[in-house]
Design a protein that fits this description.
Cofactor: NAD(+)
GO molecular function: dTDP-glucose 4,6-dehydratase activity
Protein name: dTDP-glucose 4,6-dehydratase
Strand order of the largest sheet: 3-2-1-4-5-6-11
Bound molecules: nicotinamide-adenine-dinucleotide
Number of strands: 13
Structural class: alpha/beta
Catalytic activity: dTDP-alpha-D-glucose = dTDP-4-dehydro-6-deoxy-alpha-D-glucose + H2O
Keywords: Lyase, NAD
CATH architecture of one domain: 3-Layer(aba) Sandwich
Oligomer: single chain
Number of helices: 11
Length: about 350
């Protein structure tokens, strides 16, 4: 299959690109190369004959039309987005522009291309979204997000992703565009940009800096290893039913404080300090405005309809991730100099 992957120089998109090439697909990676992108993420496939890169902005309709016409993809996997909740609090406009208007342009370019091809039934527009569109769950472990949970976004980021989800469903209902949607939980793993929680904790720990925990650390997330997520996405594009959405989770609910303590224990094992534990560096900082208490995915549709389950536990995934950061300083060190990285964002509410 020839896949047009947007956001393929980012964290999850690059995992999709690497796995798709490994599985014999052709990939066109369309990315604007914002602050969050890193072409090193796809260096391992850059010279592969089935890989092409197009630097373009998803808001640029003319560029999208040219890329569709040039590469003639069988399917689109749309991951390009502004993705950091804290940045969305300080500057929501960029999130609406890319996540909502950019998705509109992607849908319109895809629809024009699909129509010109004679509306092939096996074309797919796969929209990758987040569980944050569903809002915040109570502590009761029996209550989780399903595919029919009502939308209730509470941050500018989540609202922009919710808007994009609604557009994708509308393009299916109104124009018949063959879409599939996925809403996943928090990802972690190799190539995670060093402004997100897991890499911040690993890199601050190694640097002897405080390990910042928002609020009291009780916020719960359902952690999904990025390479498992990439595998799930390729299953959905191959086998998912048109017009249907799938929630993808890691079956790994942990509070932020538990997660950080697990990472500290792993680092204590992999690279012990001269004395004490990395957990001694834990530091509680003021909470994120509107911080959702709990996200948790009911994974039954992915499991029962597509036969997919995550391959790693949180312990295994965090250990793999910590090992990767220990071995890849040349990847993360330059990214720490990028705008806003290493400073507290999301305080302008
Ligand atoms: N990271 C998570 O835990 C998570 C969880 C749920 C859903 N998602 C969704 O998955 C997708 C990928 O997330 P990620 O964590 O890999 O994000 P990321 O920020 O690491 O990467 C986003 C990529 O999109 C590109 N991009 C941004 N704006 C663009 C534009 N206007 N035109 C073209 N390219 C542009 C960036 O250059 C970057 O390479 C996003 O849609 C996000 O909402 C992420």
């Amino acid at each position: 299959m020839k896949l047009l992957v947007t956001g393929g120089a980012g964290f999850i998109g690059s995992a999709v690109v690497r796995l798709a090439i490994a599985r014999g697909h052709s990939v066109v990676n369309l990315d604007a190369l914002t602050y969050a992108a890193c072409l090193d993420n796809v260096a391992s496939v850059a010279d592969h004959p089935d890989y092409a890169f197009e630097q373009a902005d998803i808001r640029d309709r003319a560029a999208l039309d040219r890329i569709f016409a040039t590469h003639r993809p069988d399917a689109v996997m749309h991951l390009a987005a502004e993705s950091h909740v804290d940045r969305s609090i300080d500057g929501p406009a960029d999130f609406i522009a890319t996540n909502v208007t950019g998705t509109l342009q992607m849908l319109e370019a895809a629809r024009a291309y699909w129509t010109a091809q004679g509306k092939p039934a096996d074309f797919r527009f796969h929209h990758i979204s987040t569980d944050e569109v569903f809002g915040s769950l109570p502590a009761d472990p029996a209550i989780k997000f399903t595919e029919t949970t009502a939308y209730d976004p509470r941050s500018p980021y989540a609202a922009s992703k919710a808007g994009s989800d609604h557009l994708v469903r509308a393009w299916h209902e109104t124009y018949g565009l063959p879409v599939v949607l996925t809403n996943c939980s928090n990802n972690y793993g190799p190539y995670h940009f060093p402004e997100k929680l897991v890499p911040v904790i690993i890199l601050n720990a190694l640097a002897g800096k405080p390990l910042p925990i928002y609020g009291d650390g009780s916020n719960v997330r359902d952690w999904l290893y990025v390479e498992d997520h990439a595998d799930a996405l390729l299953q959905v594009i191959a086998k998912g039913a048109v017009g249907r959405s799938y929630n993808i989770g890691g079956e790994n609910e942990r509070s932020n404080l538990d997660l950080v303590q697990m990472l500290c224990a792993i680092l204590d094992d992999l690279r012990p300090k001269a004395s004490g534990s990395y957990a001694d560096q834990i530091s509680f900082v003021p909470d994120r405005p509107g911080h959702d208490a709990r996200y948790a995915i009911d994974p039954r549709r992915m499991r029962d309809e597509l036969g997919w389950r995550p391959s790693v536990t949180i312990d295994q995934g965090l250990r793999l991730t910590a090992q990767w950061y220990l071995a890849n300083e040349s990847w993360w060190r330059p990214l720490q100099a990028r705008q806003g990285v290493g400073t507290r964002l999301g305080t302008k509410a």
